[in-house]
Amino acid sequence: MAKPADAGEIVKRALAYPYAVPDCSFVYECGGAHELPPQGVDLSGREPLLAYGANAAPEALAWKLAALPELELPVIRAELEGFDVVYSAHISRYGAVPATLEPSPGTTVATFVAYPTAEQLELIAATERLNYELSRLSGISCRLEVGKPLSELDAFLSVRGCLRISGSEVALAAIGAVARGFDEMDEPGVLEHARARLAPELDLEAFVLRCVEQGGVRPLPAL
């Protein structure tokens, strides 16, 4: 059982998903986001990775890349056509309902493309293995703030599928999109909805803590 002080931090972390992201392209290093250098960045030996959720947030990257704090990670702001960022059908080990990607014709979603080294990708993948698999997206249109558009790139996609509420996928309100076709909810809202359906006897804090103590919930049923 988490101590009261720890419990507060656990719940705060869960409710803050997908965490704050810069409003422009950046280089992640030593726990923070830094401006792209005027001369650009060297992408030699790096492959593009769609960073549509916490993988674009410096706060989350600090956890994931703690073993390589001084190795730079370029993260380029982008727009992805024909998809939206929706909730996955699981609760993570840290108590949040995280994201996945879902086709959505006519929608353009704001996202990022990261360029990890092989070592950085291995660290990121280690945080995704329970619920995600690395997949290649081909035949897409992803426009970058810096650099040429991409027609294919890799992305971690949920093996649990999309969470459905009242029969439909639900987009993350924290992530902007043009011509969004799905209803949207914020993280506190989707967690509260899950709590009310799965554990009405608990308040939200107790529900999040129980999920964390159980190592997450996999999969979440339709709500």
Overview of the molecule:
The protein has 223 residues and is an alpha+beta fold. The chain has a single domain, classed as Gamma-glutamyl cyclotransferase-like (Hypothetical upf0131 protein ytfp, Roll), CATH 3.10.490. The protein is 23% helix and 34% strand. The protein contains 5 helices and 11 strands. A hairpin with a 2-residue loop joins β8 and β9. α1 (4-16) packs across α5 (204-213). The radius of gyration is 17 Å and the shape is globular. The model has no long low-confidence stretch (mean pLDDT 96).
Please outline the helices and strands.
Elements (H helix, E strand, L loop, with lengths): L3 H13 L9 E4 L2 E3 L14 E3 L6 H7 L8 E15 L11 E16 L3 H9 L5 E13 L5 E9 L5 E2 L2 E5 L4 E2 L4 E3 L1 H12 L5 H10 L10
Parallel strand pairs: 3-7, 9-11
Antiparallel strand pairs: 1-2, 1-4, 3-5, 4-5, 4-6, 5-10, 6-7, 8-9
Helix pairs in contact: 1-5
